[in-house]
Amino acid sequence: MSLRYDPEWFALAGPKLETQSEVLPIHDIATRRSRYAQLFVRSTYAPPADINIDTFKTPASDGHEVVVYRVSKKTETETAYSSRTPAVLHIHGGGFISVHAKDVLPSLVPYVRESGIPIFSVDYRWAPENPFPTPVEDCWSGLLFLHSRSEELGIDVSRIAVMGESAGGGLAAGLALLARDRNLSPALAKQILIYPMLDDRTITDRSGGLAVFSINDVITGWAAYIGEAMGTDNVSPIAAPARVGHVAGLPSLYLDVGQLDLFLGEDVAYARKFLEAHIQTELHVYPGVIHAFQRWAPTSQVVKQVFVNRLRAITTIEAPEG
């Protein structure tokens, strides 16, 4: 039997996606930025009454000030901490070339409200103006910020997870590799990777014509991020984590992806490396849905289920053994 869309999800998402189905030419970054900007409500977002959004700045290695947003429950920031909590360092998607951290803060609120765990989101610099390694180094600066300010922030540095979607998932995976290779202590506790963009060699589109993120977008993003090295043997695993030779020493992994997502193959292959290395791994493949599927049908059962699974991944952050 051939692959098909999840019927309930498609009934809700199909009409919306038809207006987003135009495939843009490769390397047309300006139009992509304009299109992505239209998907988000900018500047006017007011958080719910029980949620705080705070803004911090921390220096990158080159002197640039990296903005880090904190989304937290008001009870966490207005009362003294009786014990330190886990924390999530979030890295947003956008094909390495677009979207601001503040644009995705509303999507983080339900996880914070239900878990009580603060999420910090890094506003990293975009490619191609700032190619690899600048975006992942900005994320590293965000991680060091959590470590250096942990007492003030009330977080347990042994229970920090990195989380990201799409290109942000790739950056989160790259950050986990960077933290391992730089001997971050305490080590990261978990990776929560949401349909991550991991492999610059991806050339197959599985979306069945309803792509809001096409293979042209993939090529454009990777070319902006790693330039002429794309597809060669000269690509660092920090940039394209699918290329990593071994995963020993990396934190536990949660990964989810739609079966019609163009990143399915690379994501499942990446999770398999963790399974074979006997690293705690939770992998979900959702039949009948494409990349970024939750945006287009938030009331569908598959989206409700993915929220439950991601929430559980957040609420079960534990310090690594050893």
Automatic annotation (TrEMBL):
GO terms for molecular function: hydrolase activity. Residues 88-294 form the Alpha/beta hydrolase fold-3 domain. It comes from Dactylonectria estremocensis. The keyword Hydrolase applies. This is Alpha/Beta hydrolase protein. InterPro entries: AB_hydrolase_3, AB_hydrolase_fold, GDXG_lipolytic_enzyme. The lineage of its organism: Eukaryota, Fungi, Dikarya, Ascomycota, Pezizomycotina. Gene3D superfamilies: alpha/beta hydrolase (3.40.50.1820). It comes from the Eukaryota. Keywords: Hydrolase.
